[in-house]
């Protein structure tokens, strides 16, 4: 079940054993995973990093999961949130949903149940993330992880694939080097901006140069945008 490639997830959970168990499960499903073990760190990461989805325990030291969600939404951060709640915190659960949590799951839960909830949540938030992506002649199939220009297959490394998928999902939007590296690697990755540049340059050689297209554009001092040339200016 490989629906979730390259998704980036934050788990805020003070039961370290549980958090590490979840991290391992998600990594086996190709997620990039960050952990926070208290509300303070969780809030910081949720508001300073870019995630596709956040799992928030409610009962946490320092800030509760509810408080973190409240502050995120106040800062206009609309990353989907799923609460992990203890059975007895029904009241919290209800107020969490009122605040704009996307779902909740009551402990104890099975990993497969959690994955199913996440799948629904991601499908809702990213649209049809299993669908073929098309920009001009370029086609990317997120499920089979294949990329084509017309009917010609393009071979990409896993990192190149992740970056291209991210650019295509956001075609027309400028993505900074930081956004790209944060999306593709977890925050422990020693990233240098020129690592992103090297991969993008390889993508250009394999796509634009090889097929005589101009899809991947540099935005000076900012980052990259993937867009059909005739749409620019
Ligand atoms: Ca807890």
CATH classification, class level of the largest domain: Alpha Beta
Strand content: 15-25%
Structural class by sheet pairing and helices? alpha/beta
Arithmetic mean pLDDT: 84
Number of helices: 8
| CATH homologous superfamily grouping of the largest domain | Response regulator
- Helix content estimate: 40-55%
Could you give the distance between the termini?
A: 41 Å
What's the story with the biggest beta sheet? 5 strands, parallel
CATH architecture of the largest domain: 3-Layer(aba) Sandwich
The overall number of domains is 2
Order of strands in the sheet with the most strands? 2-1-3-4-5
Rg from alpha-carbon coordinates:
19 Å
Count of β-strands: 12
Shape: elongated
N-to-C SSE series?
A: EHEHEHEHEHEEEEHEHHEE
Regions with little confidence, pLDDT below 50 for 5+ residues: none
Which distinct ligands sit in these coordinates?
calcium ion
The CATH topology of the largest domain is: Rossmann fold
Summary of the model, kept short:
With 233 residues, the protein is of the alpha/beta class.
